[in-house]
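Inputs:
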Amino acid sequence: MSNGKPTQTRQPAQDAKRRRTRYIMIGVVVAVVVAIGISVLASNRTTTNTDASAPAGVLDDLGVPVGTATSPVMDVYEDFQCPVCAGLESNVGPALGEMVDNGEVLLVYHIMSFLDGNLRNDSSTRAANAAGCAQDQGVFKAYHDQVFANQPQEGVGFTDEQLITFGEAAGVSDMAAFRVCVSDQTYADWVTQVERLAEDDQVHGTPTLVINGTTFDPSQAQTWDDYVTLLTAAIQQAG
Amino acid sequence: MAMIDTVSRSDRLAWVSTVVRMVLGATMLYAGVLKLLEPSQALRAVQAYRILPPAIDDIVAYGLPLLEMAVGALLLLGLGTRPAAWITSGLMVVFIAGVASAWIRGLSIDCGCFGGGGDVAAAGKVGRYTAEILRDVGLLALAGWLVWFPVSRLALDQVVDPGDPSDETDRHGDDRNETYEESSR
């Protein structure tokens, strides 16, 4: 070009050859990039597909059951860093707790961790792991309530020390074991697996409540009181 | 005198195109790599737009990062600059439409442009969507520049296939030939 190569007498044959060389090089670059990309994807897949060692007493779908009822079943998808989930827990939690106590519904908790990606931290994963540690000690629900009751401003996240303190407040009996479980992230694989299964079930956001397989639609609720009324009705109807 | 002006002008354009190509290529490669490293996050980002059926969500979540990386690598190498710039322009139009559609439909999502993505709190939604769209418009402008002026320095295109007619900038006539006259004196 302007860097001093006089090529105005290009020959058609030469043109075709050069162009072919260029296309081949483009093809090679694209092929190399795609091959690298696919191998990265494939290696990620094998690491997340391995069977996770899960906390005691979780169901086959890796959810944590809360309650003694056998039906109806309500799957609860929450992320510990999700502000709306904290709102749900403080406003709807008490009514739900009552229904659980009365044997009117079985709750199955799926603690998700995708907000780590949005908030650029790892607090959802670490808190979900800690909830798994609490489940081992039989205090999952109390621990879960502690985390939401003490949820920091969005994005601040939890320290390991906070997660351990929540365990004390939730009534963990073997604090030494709990401490190790929290700091070693014993159930990190389980957390990843729960997240993946939720995605497979097309759960895009939290909180998501699924009653006997049907996703609860709160769009008619103007207030949390409406929400409680609608949700209670939906559960009773399913039961 | 007029000759010399033309030379320095096309030379300047080529250097501007070089910078534009590097910035755009690095951005595309970076965006692709971030998505590729978190495939499940990318899938959630795509699903959160609630536009595509589930089967296609998968293809986009895994395919888009590969496309972005390939186009980014081509731009960085300066290989097939004009087609790569066309593809990038097309992607930007799609991204802008996607974010605008999420905004119009009242969704509150993170665009997932550089990893991340999915449903997020509604706070700061307007600012977030505005920034995302403005950024994509800026990248679209860069890609558009390269479609007009694909010839640049430090580019493999110029090593392998210099002066290919498909790289000509038609808009101002062929100032390249004038360049040749100048340089072949």
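Confidence is low (pLDDT under 50) at residues 171-185 of chain B. Flag for discussion at group meeting.
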